[in-house]
User: What shape does this take?
Amino acid sequence: MPKFKQTFATADATESAFYDALARADLDALMALWADEDEIVCIHPGAPRLVGHAAIRASWEAIFAHGGVHIKALQRHAVQSTMSAIHNVVEEISSDSGQAERHVLATNVFLKTPVGWRILLHHASVAPGAAPVDTASATLH
Amino acid sequence: MPKFKQTFATADATESAFYDALARADLDALMALWADEDEIVCIHPGAPRLVGHAAIRASWEAIFAHGGVHIKALQRHAVQSTMSAIHNVVEEISSDSGQAERHVLATNVFLKTPVGWRILLHHASVAPGAAPVDTASATLH
Assistant: This one.
């Protein structure tokens, strides 16, 4: 299947495109953001680990059957080196609005590849209570 | 407080030292493994995000009050670049032996620093069921 893969010049741009693709339930755009590595890893909150394109694609396809997922990535902590970027964010998920019993934390790891910055790992998990206000961090949106 | 910080030549050696320090409940050895960055992140399973040395140290001190934590890091998926290493492992925790209702997944991120490989991020979370057997991956121990 021929597909156009956009090249992103920064890890931030790739991360924004990731959450945009989730909101639009755009499976092809989402999967084009991942690195061409066998070792890519995706962990949805409270779910087993998925490794490789096929398993990760199938999981998002099942999620998108219910529509897009609207997430704001907030309170980002980021460390960048020449070839990789490590982000940790609080994911504010629209369907959770009003819920204070839990929040979602995500580690997003990006690699610089010859075709731009790509996702290597997305590890999301649930934490109890409302997200603590983190005044020291920058917000993504 | 003067303390001796060992220099580790590989991310694998730092990861082994991390789990060794947990088993020995050696707080100083554990904290010496983390990068000298304000942005270091530690997420214990089902717990809020901790950022920075003080918060991370306090959390492990509380855990070690109950003794060492014996973890085998198995089924590792790893991607290494010049300056960073991204590991994802299944943590087999001794106190969980016999439990098949849950397992723990951990993302460990290491940075190459002038004083060896150090931990930048540890993100652990709980997944349901027994850990699936992952024949494609290498084991750490």
Remarks:
- Strands of chain A lie at 41-43, 49-51, 71-80, 84-93, 102-113, 116-128.
